[in-house]
Amino acid sequence: MEFNHISVLLDETIQSLDIKENGIYVDCTAGGGGHSSAILRALGDGRLIAFDQDPDAIEVLNERLGADRRVTIVRSNFENLRQVLSELGIDKVDGILADLGVSSHQLDTAERGFSVHNDAPLDMRMSQSGTSAADLVNTLGERELARIITSYGEEKFARSIARNIVKERSVEPITTTLRLAEIIKYSIPAAARRSGGHPARKTFQALRIAVNGELDKLSDTLDDMFDLLKAGGRLSIITFHSLEDRMVKKRFSQFCEGCTCPKEFPVCVCGKTPRGELPFKFVTASEEELERNPRSRSATLRTIEKLHD
What we know:
Rossmann fold; 8-stranded mixed β-sheet; 2 domains
Protein backbone atom coordinates (compact mmCIF):
# COMPACT_ATOMS: atom_id res chain seq x y z
CA MET A 1 0.00 0.00 0.00
CA GLU A 2 1.17 3.53 -0.77
CA PHE A 3 1.23 5.67 2.37
CA ASN A 4 2.97 8.93 1.51
CA HIS A 5 3.60 11.25 4.41
CA ILE A 6 6.32 13.81 5.05
CA SER A 7 7.21 13.75 8.74
CA VAL A 8 7.24 17.28 10.13
CA LEU A 9 10.07 18.63 12.29
CA LEU A 10 11.84 15.30 11.83
CA ASP A 11 15.38 16.25 12.86
CA GLU A 12 14.19 18.55 15.63
CA THR A 13 11.93 15.84 17.06
CA ILE A 14 14.64 13.17 17.11
CA GLN A 15 17.03 15.62 18.78
CA SER A 16 14.36 16.53 21.34
CA LEU A 17 14.03 12.89 22.46
CA ASP A 18 17.77 12.68 23.29
CA ILE A 19 17.70 9.00 22.30
CA LYS A 20 19.69 6.47 24.30
CA GLU A 21 21.00 3.53 22.24
CA ASN A 22 19.54 0.92 24.61
CA GLY A 23 16.41 2.87 25.51
CA ILE A 24 12.72 2.05 25.12
CA TYR A 25 10.71 4.51 23.02
CA VAL A 26 7.07 4.88 22.02
CA ASP A 27 5.76 6.49 18.85
CA CYS A 28 2.11 7.07 19.70
CA THR A 29 1.09 8.04 16.15
CA ALA A 30 3.48 6.12 13.90
CA GLY A 31 1.58 6.64 10.63
CA GLY A 32 3.86 5.90 7.69
CA GLY A 33 6.81 5.30 9.99
CA GLY A 34 8.85 8.44 9.28
CA HIS A 35 9.57 9.39 12.88
CA SER A 36 9.74 5.73 13.91
CA SER A 37 12.37 4.98 11.28
CA ALA A 38 14.46 7.92 12.48
CA ILE A 39 14.20 6.72 16.08
CA LEU A 40 15.37 3.27 15.00
CA ARG A 41 18.38 4.75 13.22
CA ALA A 42 19.44 6.32 16.52
CA LEU A 43 18.75 3.19 18.58
CA GLY A 44 21.25 0.42 19.14
CA ASP A 45 19.71 -2.62 20.80
CA GLY A 46 16.86 -0.61 22.27
CA ARG A 47 13.16 -1.07 21.63
CA LEU A 48 10.40 0.85 19.83
CA ILE A 49 6.64 0.48 20.40
CA ALA A 50 4.81 1.93 17.36
CA PHE A 51 1.12 2.76 17.83
CA ASP A 52 -1.49 3.72 15.28
CA GLN A 53 -5.27 3.34 15.18
CA ASP A 54 -5.52 3.57 11.38
CA PRO A 55 -5.55 0.11 9.74
CA ASP A 56 -3.94 1.58 6.61
CA ALA A 57 -1.03 2.81 8.72
CA ILE A 58 -0.70 -0.55 10.47
CA GLU A 59 -0.45 -2.34 7.13
CA VAL A 60 2.32 0.01 5.99
CA LEU A 61 4.15 -0.14 9.33
CA ASN A 62 4.22 -3.93 9.09
CA GLU A 63 5.64 -3.68 5.57
CA ARG A 64 8.28 -1.09 6.46
CA LEU A 65 9.24 -1.93 10.04
CA GLY A 66 7.75 -5.32 10.84
CA ALA A 67 10.95 -7.25 10.13
CA ASP A 68 12.95 -5.25 12.68
CA ARG A 69 13.16 -7.32 15.88
CA ARG A 70 13.36 -4.10 17.93
CA VAL A 71 9.87 -3.00 16.86
CA THR A 72 6.47 -3.89 18.31
CA ILE A 73 3.57 -2.59 16.20
CA VAL A 74 0.26 -1.98 18.00
CA ARG A 75 -3.06 -1.12 16.40
CA SER A 76 -4.60 1.09 19.07
CA ASN A 77 -5.25 4.67 20.02
CA PHE A 78 -2.62 6.07 22.36
CA GLU A 79 -5.28 6.51 25.03
CA ASN A 80 -4.58 2.83 25.74
CA LEU A 81 -0.87 3.48 26.24
CA ARG A 82 -0.64 2.43 29.88
CA GLN A 83 -2.62 -0.77 29.35
CA VAL A 84 -0.65 -1.81 26.25
CA LEU A 85 2.73 -1.20 27.87
CA SER A 86 1.63 -3.18 30.91
CA GLU A 87 0.59 -6.09 28.70
CA LEU A 88 4.04 -5.93 27.06
CA GLY A 89 5.71 -6.07 30.46
CA ILE A 90 7.04 -2.52 30.20
CA ASP A 91 6.93 -0.40 33.34
CA LYS A 92 8.72 2.78 32.24
CA VAL A 93 10.13 4.13 28.97
CA ASP A 94 12.89 6.54 27.95
CA GLY A 95 10.87 8.60 25.52
CA ILE A 96 7.43 9.12 24.01
CA LEU A 97 6.48 10.92 20.80
CA ALA A 98 3.02 11.97 19.65
CA ASP A 99 2.55 13.69 16.28
CA LEU A 100 -1.05 14.86 16.49
CA GLY A 101 -1.50 15.88 12.86
CA VAL A 102 -3.66 14.26 10.22
CA SER A 103 -1.35 12.33 7.91
CA SER A 104 -0.85 13.31 4.27
CA HIS A 105 -2.22 9.88 3.36
CA GLN A 106 -5.46 10.57 5.22
CA LEU A 107 -5.80 14.03 3.68
CA ASP A 108 -4.91 12.95 0.15
CA THR A 109 -7.01 9.77 0.11
CA ALA A 110 -10.28 11.32 -0.99
CA GLU A 111 -12.54 8.52 0.24
CA ARG A 112 -11.38 9.08 3.84
CA GLY A 113 -13.41 12.30 3.82
CA PHE A 114 -10.93 14.57 5.61
CA SER A 115 -10.34 17.10 2.84
CA VAL A 116 -12.45 20.08 1.84
CA HIS A 117 -11.01 19.87 -1.68
CA ASN A 118 -12.22 16.43 -2.85
CA ASP A 119 -15.75 15.13 -3.20
CA ALA A 120 -16.02 12.04 -1.03
CA PRO A 121 -18.17 10.37 1.63
CA LEU A 122 -18.29 12.52 4.76
CA ASP A 123 -16.28 10.19 6.99
CA MET A 124 -13.21 11.55 8.89
CA ARG A 125 -12.72 8.45 11.08
CA MET A 126 -9.02 7.86 11.74
CA SER A 127 -9.74 4.33 12.98
CA GLN A 128 -12.17 3.69 10.08
CA SER A 129 -14.76 2.53 12.61
CA GLY A 130 -17.42 4.07 14.83
CA THR A 131 -19.39 7.29 14.38
CA SER A 132 -18.62 9.24 11.20
CA ALA A 133 -18.81 12.94 10.43
CA ALA A 134 -21.96 12.27 8.39
CA ASP A 135 -23.56 10.73 11.48
CA LEU A 136 -22.88 13.89 13.50
CA VAL A 137 -23.94 16.30 10.77
CA ASN A 138 -27.24 14.50 10.16
CA THR A 139 -28.28 13.67 13.74
CA LEU A 140 -27.05 16.31 16.17
CA GLY A 141 -29.26 19.22 17.13
CA GLU A 142 -28.50 22.74 15.94
CA ARG A 143 -27.25 23.89 19.35
CA GLU A 144 -24.86 20.93 19.73
CA LEU A 145 -23.53 21.37 16.20
CA ALA A 146 -22.88 25.05 16.90
CA ARG A 147 -21.11 24.15 20.16
CA ILE A 148 -18.80 21.68 18.41
CA ILE A 149 -17.98 24.09 15.58
CA THR A 150 -17.31 26.90 18.06
CA SER A 151 -15.36 24.87 20.61
CA TYR A 152 -13.27 22.73 18.28
CA GLY A 153 -13.05 25.00 15.23
CA GLU A 154 -13.05 28.43 16.88
CA GLU A 155 -15.40 29.44 14.08
CA LYS A 156 -17.23 32.70 14.82
CA PHE A 157 -19.98 31.93 12.29
CA ALA A 158 -20.81 28.58 13.92
CA ARG A 159 -24.44 29.42 14.64
CA SER A 160 -25.15 30.32 11.03
CA ILE A 161 -23.36 27.20 9.79
CA ALA A 162 -25.24 24.93 12.21
CA ARG A 163 -28.57 26.52 11.30
CA ASN A 164 -28.01 25.97 7.57
CA ILE A 165 -26.80 22.39 8.10
CA VAL A 166 -30.05 21.55 9.90
CA LYS A 167 -32.07 23.32 7.21
CA GLU A 168 -30.36 21.53 4.33
CA ARG A 169 -30.43 18.06 5.89
CA SER A 170 -34.20 18.33 6.30
CA VAL A 171 -34.38 18.38 2.50
CA GLU A 172 -31.76 15.69 1.88
CA PRO A 173 -29.14 14.04 4.15
CA ILE A 174 -25.67 15.58 3.91
CA THR A 175 -23.39 12.71 2.94
CA THR A 176 -20.47 14.20 0.98
CA THR A 177 -17.63 16.57 1.77
CA LEU A 178 -18.25 19.03 -1.03
CA ARG A 179 -21.95 19.40 -0.24
CA LEU A 180 -21.10 20.20 3.37
CA ALA A 181 -18.34 22.57 2.26
CA GLU A 182 -20.79 24.42 0.00
CA ILE A 183 -23.31 24.80 2.85
CA ILE A 184 -20.58 26.19 5.09
CA LYS A 185 -19.40 28.55 2.37
CA TYR A 186 -22.77 30.25 1.89
CA SER A 187 -23.22 30.42 5.69
CA ILE A 188 -20.22 32.75 6.00
CA PRO A 189 -20.32 36.40 4.87
CA ALA A 190 -18.56 37.08 1.57
CA ALA A 191 -16.01 39.41 3.16
CA ALA A 192 -14.97 36.73 5.67
CA ARG A 193 -14.65 34.13 2.91
CA ARG A 194 -11.93 36.15 1.22
CA SER A 195 -9.39 35.62 4.01
CA GLY A 196 -8.14 32.81 6.25
CA GLY A 197 -7.99 29.97 3.74
CA HIS A 198 -10.87 27.72 2.73
CA PRO A 199 -14.09 28.83 4.48
CA ALA A 200 -14.91 25.25 5.52
CA ARG A 201 -11.50 24.54 7.05
CA LYS A 202 -12.42 25.36 10.66
CA THR A 203 -15.70 23.44 10.59
CA PHE A 204 -14.03 20.38 9.06
CA GLN A 205 -11.38 20.56 11.79
CA ALA A 206 -14.10 20.74 14.44
CA LEU A 207 -15.98 17.75 13.06
CA ARG A 208 -12.77 15.70 12.77
CA ILE A 209 -11.87 16.43 16.39
CA ALA A 210 -15.37 15.50 17.53
CA VAL A 211 -15.53 12.30 15.44
CA ASN A 212 -12.19 11.06 16.78
CA GLY A 213 -12.47 12.44 20.32
CA GLU A 214 -9.03 13.95 19.82
CA LEU A 215 -8.93 16.54 22.59
CA ASP A 216 -10.56 14.33 25.19
CA LYS A 217 -8.17 11.47 24.46
CA LEU A 218 -5.16 13.79 24.55
CA SER A 219 -6.23 15.36 27.85
CA ASP A 220 -6.91 11.96 29.42
CA THR A 221 -3.55 10.54 28.29
CA LEU A 222 -1.06 13.37 28.92
CA ASP A 223 -0.70 12.41 32.60
CA ASP A 224 -0.11 8.77 31.65
CA MET A 225 2.50 9.73 29.08
CA PHE A 226 4.46 11.75 31.64
CA ASP A 227 4.04 9.19 34.44
CA LEU A 228 5.32 6.37 32.20
CA LEU A 229 8.66 8.12 31.62
CA LYS A 230 11.76 7.09 33.50
CA ALA A 231 13.65 9.83 35.33
CA GLY A 232 15.48 11.67 32.57
CA GLY A 233 13.00 10.48 29.95
CA ARG A 234 11.43 12.91 27.49
CA LEU A 235 7.95 13.44 26.09
CA SER A 236 7.73 15.27 22.74
CA ILE A 237 4.41 16.33 21.24
CA ILE A 238 3.77 17.95 17.86
CA THR A 239 0.52 19.91 17.68
CA PHE A 240 -1.18 21.51 14.68
CA HIS A 241 -3.78 23.88 16.09
CA SER A 242 -4.12 26.20 19.05
CA LEU A 243 -6.53 24.01 21.04
CA GLU A 244 -4.04 21.13 21.23
CA ASP A 245 -1.06 23.41 21.76
CA ARG A 246 -2.68 25.29 24.64
CA MET A 247 -3.56 22.00 26.32
CA VAL A 248 -0.01 20.64 26.00
CA LYS A 249 1.58 23.93 27.07
CA LYS A 250 -0.63 24.17 30.17
CA ARG A 251 -0.08 20.55 31.24
CA PHE A 252 3.69 20.81 30.74
CA SER A 253 3.63 23.96 32.87
CA GLN A 254 1.84 22.04 35.63
CA PHE A 255 4.45 19.28 35.51
CA CYS A 256 7.18 21.93 35.91
CA GLU A 257 5.47 23.73 38.79
CA GLY A 258 7.35 23.84 42.08
CA CYS A 259 6.54 25.45 45.41
CA THR A 260 3.10 27.09 45.54
CA CYS A 261 3.47 28.68 48.98
CA PRO A 262 2.65 32.40 49.26
CA LYS A 263 5.67 34.59 48.61
CA GLU A 264 5.59 35.96 52.15
CA PHE A 265 6.25 32.52 53.67
CA PRO A 266 9.87 32.38 54.89
CA VAL A 267 10.18 28.67 54.05
CA CYS A 268 8.30 26.21 51.86
CA VAL A 269 5.62 24.24 53.69
CA CYS A 270 3.82 22.75 50.67
CA GLY A 271 6.69 20.42 49.81
CA LYS A 272 6.00 20.62 46.08
CA THR A 273 8.96 20.33 43.73
CA PRO A 274 9.04 20.42 39.90
CA ARG A 275 8.53 17.01 38.33
CA GLY A 276 9.77 18.13 34.93
CA GLU A 277 11.70 20.78 33.05
CA LEU A 278 11.57 22.14 29.52
CA PRO A 279 14.75 21.62 27.45
CA PHE A 280 13.51 24.44 25.17
CA LYS A 281 10.37 26.56 24.86
CA PHE A 282 9.02 25.26 21.55
CA VAL A 283 10.10 24.67 17.94
CA THR A 284 8.36 25.48 14.65
CA ALA A 285 9.27 24.64 11.07
CA SER A 286 12.21 26.35 9.41
CA GLU A 287 11.86 28.26 6.15
CA GLU A 288 13.57 25.36 4.36
CA GLU A 289 11.02 22.88 5.72
CA LEU A 290 8.12 25.16 4.85
CA GLU A 291 9.31 25.20 1.25
CA ARG A 292 9.49 21.40 1.17
CA ASN A 293 6.28 20.80 3.08
CA PRO A 294 3.79 23.68 3.42
CA ARG A 295 1.64 21.51 5.74
CA SER A 296 4.30 21.96 8.42
CA ARG A 297 3.36 25.64 8.77
CA SER A 298 1.06 25.08 11.74
CA ALA A 299 3.25 22.48 13.51
CA THR A 300 4.61 23.22 16.99
CA LEU A 301 6.94 20.87 18.88
CA ARG A 302 7.04 20.95 22.68
CA THR A 303 9.19 18.69 24.87
CA ILE A 304 9.38 18.03 28.60
CA GLU A 305 11.99 16.02 30.52
CA LYS A 306 10.99 14.13 33.64
CA LEU A 307 13.26 14.98 36.60
CA HIS A 308 12.36 12.18 38.98
CA ASP A 309 9.81 9.44 39.59
